[in-house]
Amino acid sequence: MSDPDPKRQLQDLDAKLTALKAAKRTDKAHQEEHYSQAQVAWRMVTEMVAGLGVGFGIGYGLDVLLGTAPFLMVLFTLLGTAAGINVMLRTAKELQGKTQTPPDAGGHEGNKDGD
């Protein structure tokens, strides 16, 4: 007893395999996006901590050399924190520019009210 239409069965099987492969690719793309967002988050945390640490180190070193108690340490820690925040914001703008697509090719960059 043979199948009525083996070519039809092969085409159905091929369609099912193609659908499974496509679903697997989209799942993998979502996982990669998730990991890339985690990497971006760690990058921003590292930039913030680095700015804070460098500012603290410079301020502490200058306080020891100049004998100015905690004044320069506090000042440079605040400056390092501000620098870390600045770098984080720059990174966020860079990433936002990569992920954002314009709504239409010929539109202007105003708000939705047309101003």
Automatic annotation (TrEMBL):
Record's keyword terms, sorted: Hydrogen ion transport, Ion transport, Membrane, Transmembrane, Transmembrane helix, Transport
Q: Name one GO biological process term.
A: proton transmembrane transport
A GO cellular component annotation in the UniProt record: proton-transporting ATP synthase complex
The organism sits in which domain of life? Bacteria
Q: Where are the transmembrane segments?
A: 40-62, 68-89
Which InterPro entries does the record cross-reference, listed alphabetically?
A: Atp1_alphaprobac, ATPase_put
Q: Which Pfam families match?
A: ATPase_gene1
Instruction: List all Basic and acidic residues biased stretches.
Output: 106-115
For the region Disordered, give the residue spans: 94-115
Q: What does this protein do?
A: A possible function for this protein is to guide the assembly of the membrane sector of the ATPase enzyme complex.
Q: Which family does it belong to?
A: Belongs to the bacterial AtpI family.
Q: This chain belongs to which protein, by name?
A: ATP synthase protein I
